[in-house]
């Protein structure tokens, strides 16, 4: 089977890439990295104007009704630029409402999420770093407890909270009993916070089910895998460019065999990753029986390889690769985020085996 992106999909990628080239060059990226408390308004509004938050929202609710692959290829470009943006958590909240909300909830929130007039976040992890089996539950319409590692929580108008038994609940930003505590994070392009919930009023998404929870999780894993591919591809480009210009012992270091082998191994690691995340995104909409396994496989493998390639990129740069001024440190921190968020590679490789009945 031949599986390639359509001309329309390639144009979508090129449009986002041109936008980021203009609005998120290296100098601007470092400014964002130095001020993580600020929402990257220019980037987010640009994505909104291009219709990115609306891509997978059904047309009946003001969206474009496109597939997850169309959004994943944009996540790849965002990862390649290490662009600071709240799209990941916003999309997970959107997916939760699409698949777990009732008609009234979808009609209330999806048009706002699609248009970007409402920014949403997603809260899954609890104490101990458990991403996939939350224990928090809704009692008499109130939530009690703590959620950790919530992306852009301080900027969100709406937060979708993952609960026990595959349920979800909505919290609005001005809810009583909600406290948002910023966390000290490595990847400053995606700031996170903890939520302290003290009898905080919340609205249950009434169509929550195992199937809806599976779709939200698979969305997260596919988008993270796509981001990993983009980031890893950029790491190779940075390492190659540096090897062509850095001189040592009277010649550029790219002429040394050890560097050539290192760069070649990085390329061999990265290029096959593209098809893995493409298939995972395709399976989400077309192969439901394989979707969970492919999403877990993509996230587990790509997050592991991105972290490896990012480390190799720092090594190829030598001492400067460890400095704040070098872009390499931004990518290795993004790789660490992608590796850990929604469960590490080991967790998802175990799930792959379980889903395959190994």
TrEMBL record:
It comes from the Bacteria. Its cofactor is FAD. Pfam families: Acyl-CoA_dh_1, Acyl-CoA_dh_N. Residues 6-116 form the Acyl-CoA dehydrogenase/oxidase N-terminal domain. InterPro entries: AcylCo_DH-like_C, AcylCo_DH/oxidase_C, AcylCoA_DH/ox_N, AcylCoA_DH/ox_N_sf, AcylCoA_DH/oxidase_NM_dom_sf. Keywords: FAD, Flavoprotein, Oxidoreductase. GO terms for molecular function: acyl-CoA dehydrogenase activity; flavin adenine dinucleotide binding. Residues 213-354 form the Acyl-CoA dehydrogenase/oxidase C-terminal domain. Belongs to the acyl-CoA dehydrogenase family. This is Acyl-CoA/acyl-ACP dehydrogenase. It comes from Spongiibacter nanhainus.
